[in-house]
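pasting for ref
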Amino acid sequence: MTPLFSSIFAASLLVTQTGGAGDFTSVRPIEGYRCFRVYIPEERRFDRSAVPPVFAAPTEASKLIGHSGVAAFVKWPMNEVDGFVEIIWGGQGLKAWIHKDVLRPWRTKVSPAGPASECVPTLMSNGRIGVGNAIPYKHE
């Protein structure tokens, strides 16, 4: 898959998770959460069945509430129960759970010479939760 198609697919998943795009801005970071990248194998990037499920409780027997985007907003310090990790999900910030094994640290490069781009769980001016890349944020 070309980098352009990867970027388009990633953006579409993030828009799906955060509730759409529009004219709004970052208001403030959401304390107590960190971004993690949701891993989907390269050969399955266009396979919708490969998008990890999100559950209402830390078990597959609980209600399936949706599927992840490219970023997961993980409760920090991490709350892990039986191989699931607590996240906030969707634009409304529902408490949810995702398999720990699909999460990777958020590390991307804008360019080989540039700084790593940040993903910051953020309250947006439209009242929804999204990614506020412009807010300074440092991982410990």
